């Protein structure tokens, strides 16, 4: 019984590894390195425009 659970855990682990590698390859194909290393999206962009409430002075 425990052997089957162990093999199942290894199979799930291998599946997750393959999924991560496939996702990394897909992201690498879809985006260039400048976009992936850029910090212009998200909170940095909001701070530039003053749209974040914590960034505004009271």
From TrEMBL:
Superkingdom to which the source organism belongs: Bacteria
Name of the protein this chain belongs to: Uncharacterized protein
């Amino acid at each position: 019984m425990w052997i089957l659970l162990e093999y199942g855990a290894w199979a799930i682990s291998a599946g997750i590894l393959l999924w991560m590698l496939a996702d990394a390859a897909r992201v690498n194909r879809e985006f260039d390195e400048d976009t992936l290393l850029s910090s212009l999206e998200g909170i940095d962009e909001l701070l530039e425009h003053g749209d974040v409430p914590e960034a505004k002075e009271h």
